[in-house]
Structure prediction request, 259 residues.
Amino acid sequence: MNHDTERALDKAAAILAGARSVIAFTGAGISAESGVPTFRGAGGIWERYDERHLELGYFRAHPELAWPTIRDIFYAFASPDGERPPFQPNDAHRVLAAWEQQGILNFTVTQNIDGLHAAAGSRRLSEFHGTTATLSCMRCGARVPSARELLETLPPRCPCGGIYKPDFTFFGEGIDPAASSSAYDAARKADVCLVIGSTGLVYPAATIPRVVAGGGGTVIEVNPEPSTFTDDITGVFLPMGASEALVALDRRLRGTATP
Ligand SMILES: [Zn+2]
Prediction:
């Protein structure tokens, strides 16, 4: 780690330690370190699958066609040929959950639908784009965990006969009002926003750090490369991976930084 990065980490840790209310805003970069595949770009999921299968209108009209794609992408652990275990939280998720317990972090807003913040123990959480962890019946509204048995026969059906839809936001679907209002409430109260692994290209989610900055708060950004936030609202830029940065900040906050 070079001297500039060390100094930026020291500065970020001091800002976190002196903050009144801190929120974290996380994107695909934090989950990539758990092996969760990315959607866009070279090797992204849309090079292999039809994006329409995640459009709400298409899904409602053709759930039997969309569901095999959805299972392949999000529930490979339940696919007959894909024996991949569910993804696990990494050090970055764990540090954020611990900071919430210790009162260092007030709230987490994530764009990710993989449920890894909740799995790591974060409770003050807005899953802005929903979650793969549960399914809801499109007929009666019943909500159930995304259990393997349920996904063996597609499309998965509720006891009422309705078809289940994953509880993440499809293309053409609005943001869940509770997820949205809790995120904006937390952003308006925050004086520090820690952006982790988000390039800020997806709206309206990308407005969250801007709300904090607009209210006079400080943005600390953890991204390996500069993003749309960097020159615009970022106060301290940490050019690092999520786990490396969070572990380094955690050491400083606990006063055990090694020189
Ligand atoms: Zn039902």
User: Anything to note?
Assistant: The pocket of zinc ion is lined by residues 137, 139-140, 142, 158, 160, 162 (CB under 6 Å).
